[in-house]
Amino acid sequence: MDTLQKRLRAVRGSLTQSDFASRLQTPLTTLGRYERGTNLPDLDFIINMCTIFDVSPAWLLFGKGSMRGGLAAPEGADPCRRCEVLERELREERVERREVCAENRALNAENRRLLVENGRLREESARLRLSRPGVPCDAPLPHVG
Question: Most CB within 10 Å of its CB: which of 3, 39, 88, 122?
Answer without folding.
Answer: 39
